[in-house]
Amino acid sequence: MASLYIKDGETAELASRIARRLGTTKTEAVRRALLKVEAELGPQAAKQSTVEWLREYRRDHPLPPPTGLKADKAFFDELWGEDPD
Fold first, then answer.
1. Do residues 55 and 49 touch, judged by C-beta distance below 8 A?
2. H-helix or E-strand spanning residue 84
3. Can you tell me the distance from the alpha carbon of 40 to that of 26, in angstroms, rounded to the nearest whole number?
4. Which of 21, 22, 46, 59 has its CA 20 to 30 A from that of 71?
5. Is residue 1 part of a domain?
6. What is the extent of the structural domain holding 43?
7. Residue-level pLDDT at 84
8. Could you tell me which residues come within 8 angstroms of residue 12 by beta carbon, excluding any fewer than 6 positions away?
9. Per the confidence metrics, is the pTM higher than 0.90?
10. How many domains does the chain have?
């Protein structure tokens, strides 16, 4: 069983007040609140597919324009200071 420790005193007190008003435990009060938020988020809360995530990432972080340089063996040999064949 996992535990949830609320470190913020004000938030812990809020959970206690809500639990008392509902006549339930703090755990149940927090569970109800989280379920309500999840319902408000709706289908958007569902996990994105990797393809959708990549599409959005590429839209928000486009690649720079091409430089015209070739990244072939000669290019990498030159980077490493090696003599071309």
1. no
2. none
3. 21
4. 59
5. no
6. 9-64
7. 64
8. 6, 26
9. no
10. 1
